[in-house]
Amino acid sequence: QLLFVESGGGLVQPGGSLRLSCTVSGFSSSYYVIGWFRQAPGKELEGVSCISTKDGSTYYADSVKGRFTVSRDNAKNTMYLEMNSLKPDDTANYYCAADTSRFYCSHYVWARAGEYDSWGQGTQVTVSS
To answer: How is 60-105 classified by DSSP, letter by letter?
Structure first.
């Protein structure tokens, strides 16, 4: 079973920035896919981004393109979600999740929560003045 340690959430003003971290352990392979998802109360779970630990290729939701950047440090088994120009609508609980069946994010299904095997505990991001 995979273990996730998520951190970096907090309170930030509109226009500000946060960086979320997700450290993964417990998997025999170094190569898999990490998805970032978010959910606000009463709202649908939304796929935010995806990154391959194999080659670093990424996908982003239209709602965050140009503002969020996902990256990885394979030596530390850690993924980062850099969030810039934050808006109140970005307020949500953010989760990292692993798809251990893939090396690369799928063009068709990267944002489908059901594709992912294991989930982190989430970290709250609140954007408010």
So the answer is: E-TTTTTTEEEEEEGGGTEEEEEE-S--GGG-EEEEEEEETT-SS-
Q: pLDDT category, 27, cuts 50, 70, 90?
A: confident
* pLDDT confidence of residue 2: 85
- Reference 8, options 66, 81, 92, 90; nearest CA is 81
Residue with tokens 């939701």: 61
Contact 9, 95 (CB under 8 A): no
**Integer CA distances (angstroms), 108 to 52, 78, 104, 105, in order:** 15, 25, 12, 9
pLDDT band at 12 (very low <50, low <70, confident <90, very high): very high
In whole angstroms, give the CA distance from residue 111 to residue 61: 8
The first and second tokens of residue 34, run together, are 């990490």
Tokens of 63: 């709602």
**pLDDT at residue 56 in the model:** 95
Asked if residues 32 and 102 have their Cβ atoms less than 8 Å apart, the reply is: yes
> At 114, is the pLDDT very low, low, confident or very high (cuts 50, 70, 90)?
very high
